[in-house]
């Protein structure tokens, strides 16, 4: 099994880094001015601006 890449608000942060909001299906969804947060391992993800959004590590949150 692979490592989880999308996280819900309240989930624990697996690794230090910058995380940003993505749409449910980031492949199809472009978000204008997504939230970005710098978190450390063990922190909890904050709420997103919309219930359909999730958190993803910035290096993996590329739009195709």
From TrEMBL:
Full protein name: YjzC family protein
InterPro entries: YjzC
Annotated Basic residues bias: 50-64
Region (Disordered): 41-64
């Amino acid at each position: 099994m692979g490592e989880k890449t999308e996280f819900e608000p309240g989930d624990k942060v697996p690794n230090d880094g910058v995380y940003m909001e993505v749409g449910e299906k980031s492949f199809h969804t472009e978000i204008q001015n997504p939230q970005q947060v710098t978190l450390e391992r063990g922190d909890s993800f904050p709420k997103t601006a919309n219930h359909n959004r999730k958190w993803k590590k910035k290096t993996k949150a590329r739009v195709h």
